[in-house]
């Protein structure tokens, strides 16, 4: 029987059985092989770290069934009206953590031969990071400061690398995460809290400061520091969605420096850059070896171990990066 990981209440995680709907004529039924935890977003939802009037509060409540945003699997059945997809095709899709899914055929992307399925799980977070790369015009930039080297920050480092940005600076409080960033193409690593290194970071670009700053942390306290280090007439992009937007306060740097602030979200499909189009670009870079994903999968759990997986994401985030659920064991059974 199909199973899924849910958040029945604040701070609680369960694996439960559920009924899978019939496959419609324009839909496909998929057997999940792997799903990837979005560490920041999912722990924010699980522990309800958001204000009552926030974006998170409007979208999420308990029991919460939307527990994940990226998974890969194999098509088991395609509806009568589906073309271009067939049973046995390997696909990526943005859905919650579950053993099976029935979803519109338009919501899946075929995984090309040569890309392993765990690596393909990064598609979801790669798309999120792509939004900042597009908004920041990475293709025309020569330097960027990325605040936060979590999973989304790692994807952003790699977009910067494939766009040939010469100077990619990353600041994070975890040495392990900075090592991942270095492998992905970062040229400058800054260990610690940004607030402790304002003078050092402000010296980037011959003492002018970074012209492009991307905050991936979702931490409202980081915002003013991002404004403080940005170069005159620079741009600050908010990629991490905070649960407490009322705590993100402007400073005088906005006016005195003439800064531009832009918020981006994975749902912002603009200029034709849909999920499918970003997926194809991402896969082409992975196949060419330019998008280095080596070492990013740091932990793997069975769905039965979902409580341990989220405990790791919560308590030891500094050493966790890719936390993967392996759904390929057909004999697993949910806890009673």
Radius of gyration: 20 Å
Determine the mean pLDDT.
Answer: 94
Q: What is the number of domains?
A: 2
CATH fold-level topology of the largest domain: Quinone Oxidoreductase, Chain A, domain 1
Q: What do we call the CATH homologous superfamily of the largest domain?
A: Medium-chain alcohol dehydrogenases, catalytic domain
Question: Could you give a short description of this structure?
Answer:
The chain is an alpha/beta fold and 336 residues long. Helix content is 28%, strand content 22%.
Structural commentary:
The protein has about 325 residues and is of the alpha/beta class. It folds into two domains: about 150 residues, Alpha-Beta Complex (Quinone Oxidoreductase, Chain A, domain 1), CATH 3.90.180.10; about 140 residues, 3-Layer(aba) Sandwich (Rossmann fold). It contains eleven helices and 15 strands. Helix 6 links the parallel strand 9 and strand 10. Helix 4 packs across helix 10 and helix 5 packs parallel to helix 6. The radius of gyration is 20 Å and the shape is globular. The mean pLDDT is about 95.
Q: Which keywords apply here?
A:
336 residues, alpha/beta, Quinone Oxidoreductase, Chain A, domain 1, 7-stranded mixed beta sheet, 6-stranded parallel beta sheet, 11 helices, 28% helix, 22% strand, globular
Please give the structural blueprint.
Layout: E1 3-6, E2 14-17, E3 27-36, H1 39-46, H2 55-59, E4 71-78, E5 90-93, E6 100-104, E7 108-110, H3 117-120, H4 123-135, E8 143-147, H5 151-162, E9 167-172, H6 175-184, E10 188-191, H7 198-202, E11 212-215, H8 222-229, E12 235-238, H9 253-257, E13 260-263, H10 275-288, E14 297-301, H11 306-315, E15 322-326
């Amino acid at each position: 029987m199909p199973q899924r990981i849910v958040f029945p209440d604040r701070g609680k995680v369960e694996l439960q059985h559920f009924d899978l709907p019939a496959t419609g004529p324009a839909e496909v039924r998929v057997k999940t092989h792997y799903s990837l935890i979005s560490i920041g977003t999912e722990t924010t939802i699980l522990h309800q770290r958001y204000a009552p009037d926030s974006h998170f509060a409007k979208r999420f409540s308990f029991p919460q069934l939307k527990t994940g945003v990226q998974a890969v699997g194999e098509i088991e059945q395609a509806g009568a009206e589906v073309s271009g997809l067939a049973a046995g095709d390997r696909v990526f899709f943005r859905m919650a953590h579950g053993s099976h899914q029935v979803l519109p055929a338009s919501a899946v992307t075929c995984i090309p031969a040569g890309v392993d399925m765990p690596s393909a799980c990064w598609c979801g977070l790669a798309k999120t990071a792509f939004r900042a790369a597009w908004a920041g015009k990475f293709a025309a930039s020569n330097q960027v400061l990325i605040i936060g080297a979590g999973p989304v920050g790692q994807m952003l480092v790699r977009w910067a690398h494939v766009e040939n940005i010469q100077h990619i600076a990353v600041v994070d409080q975890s040495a392990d995460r900075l090592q991942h960033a270095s492998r992905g193409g970062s040229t400058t690593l800054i260990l610690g809290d940004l607030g402790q290194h304002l003078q050092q970071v402000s010296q980037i670009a011959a003492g002018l400061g970074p012209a492009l700053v991307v905050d991936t942390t979702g931490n409202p306290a980081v915002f003013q520091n991002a404004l403080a280090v940005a170069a005159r007439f620079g741009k600050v992009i908010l990629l991490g969605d905070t649960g407490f937007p009322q705590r993100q306060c402007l400073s005088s740097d906005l006016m005195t420096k003439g800064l531009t602030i832009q918020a981006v979200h994975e749902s912002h499909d603009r200029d034709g850059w849909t999920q499918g189009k970003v997926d194809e670009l991402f896969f082409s870079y992975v196949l060419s070896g330019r998008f280095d994903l080596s070492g990013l999968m740091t932990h793997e759990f069975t769905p039965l171990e979902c409580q341990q997986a989220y405990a790791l994401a919560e308590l030891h985030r500094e050493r966790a990066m890719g936390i993967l659920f392996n759904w390929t064991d057909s004999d697993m059974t949910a806890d009673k």
